[in-house]
Amino acid sequence: MDSSLLVPGALLGAYLLGSIPFAVVSSRVFGLADPRSYGSGNPGATNVLRSGNKKAALLTLIGDGAKGWLAVFLAVRFGLSDALVGLVALAVFFGHLFPVFLKFKGGKGVATAAGVLLALDWLLGVGTLAVWILTVVVSRYSSLGALIAAVAAPLIAAMMWGGGGATVAVGVMSMALVAKHWGNLQRLLAGSEPKLGAGKKGKR
Fold first, then answer.
1. Residue of 118, 178, 115, 172 whose CA lies nearest to 146
2. Which of 121, 71, 75, 65 is CA-nearest to residue 92?
């Protein structure tokens, strides 16, 4: 490939990969309703789980995480610079948030961000995941776990790598995740956010 086309090709490819709506795909595979038509309307694994089909939710989770991991893995494999790897990470992540295949109305990005972090450095991914798990176990709020993990990720990245393109990318993803969970944050502060296992109708 012409080197002048490598960067735009990588970014476009990452964005299109991120745009694949695994929540919709898995729902169709299992003969379920479109996840945008019930619950929170969010095309993500948590909302698919509200259908009662754990296999569909698991497929959504794996698919959303895998596309984030694959885009960054390939960027690293092809020897792109740290800054370009960071841009690829953002492209696949924002592809999930604003997918062209769903008229730019995507999910909240937690699973895709987790895949990106694992591909950037498995220690960063595992560390951030541990923060999420610990928060959820203690509080029973999935959204609170996502918010705290989002804040923790760039701090862990900065401690591991210092500055650089990848650290900046993690910081941008963190801010986007907090923004996508802003409604959850408001409900947490108001005491109206549903806990895990409290029912299937609450928004996440």
1. 178
2. 71
